[in-house]
């Protein structure tokens, strides 16, 4: 047993799969430099550092309803939200429909018609609208959002470049509604997740807020001083939320990471995302397992069986780490009859997750450090973490917390607290809508 563990660890070190391949202090410094360059608007930065013109309010407005729209993935959700006297969000009149452009390409008119159709039933309930728009968009100073590109199978090319808030109101106006007093705040899901942290019940005062999503993809948002945002003219002495677009951080710890990047559609983009998120951990594991087979670490018997189940997804790899003796799981069957194969496979997958946890911790640690918050242990930074990959992938959250504790708290004396808030995009969009 000791021999197979040593051989596995040697393989992982050789190909840069081990978490030890990551120089944490060097990575934190690189993150800092990239963030600063992004704030200055330098094209050399892999981080867009998008200003949102959205502030963290001192107190969530209570007793006033707000219409909430949530366009994310392939679903479009609408509801009415009111924060009660205790600050708890009351969600009513919830409805979910398909996003326009999922089944077939739609025109801009058809796109905004679909949104207006869903808003009509709520139109008289509030003059404020919070719109969580989970697609790449430039946010304007008046809190509108201009789509840059659609992902997630949405086919609506005419909408690119058109402000979604203004066009929604225009369509409602064409239908005879008085929209002169209506205000729309557009924000993305990571910014909404940050704002939702403000609604988290807590007996301690937080010194700062971070929104973090690790699901199919990944992103992070934090609060920055306007004085540090050099790429646009802003009023000093104020702060606003920055959408980092952290999944695009340029990082390549080892040669197998480079091979994996080269196998994807955009080899030079979204390097961090491709090493930690749900869409990529399974395919990355498939590549690493293939190299282990090629080098003889895993047997030919395993290779024949693995060929029948490959490529694997993130759920499959996580299942093996969680229950390595459950024969109903595909990777357990691949190892049947060979303890060496089973141990080597577990060691490989555990290392991939540990490295992902270390990279995730680097992302969060760099963000906390850049925010300037968390220096008083009595007033930690609130990190509202969302996403099924973070919570459901075996060991990922555990490793993230381990490396954060080591490098952020013990070495840098910065303090933080994780929270998990259900319906974060909805709650955050409601807070934004009530703030305009």
Describe the structure in your own words.
- The chain is α/β, with parallel strands linked by helices.
- It folds into two domains: 1-51 and 201-420, Hexokinase, domain 1, CATH 3.40.367.20; 65-187, Nucleotidyltransferase, domain 5.
- Helix content is 41%, strand content 17%.
- Helix 2 (24-40) crosses helix 12 and helix 12 crosses helix 14.
Strand order of the largest sheet: 1-11-10-9-12-13
Q: Which consecutive residue ranges, at least 5 long each, have pLDDT under 50?
A: none
Largest beta-sheet characterization: 6 strands, mixed
Percent range for β-strand residues: 15-25%
Number of helices: 15
**Mean pLDDT over the full residue set:** 95
Q: Let me know the number of strands.
A: 13
Instruction: Indicate the CATH class of the largest domain.
Output: Alpha Beta
Order of helices and strands: HHEEEEHEEEHEHEEEHHHHHHHEHHEH
What is the general shape? globular
**What would the CATH topology of the largest domain be?**
Hexokinase, domain 1
Cα-based radius of gyration, to the nearest Å? 23 Å
Please tell me the CATH architecture of the largest domain by its name: 3-Layer(aba) Sandwich
**Helical residue percent band:** 40-55%
| Total number of distinct structural domains | 2
Helical/strand content category: alpha/beta
Distance between the termini: 62 Å
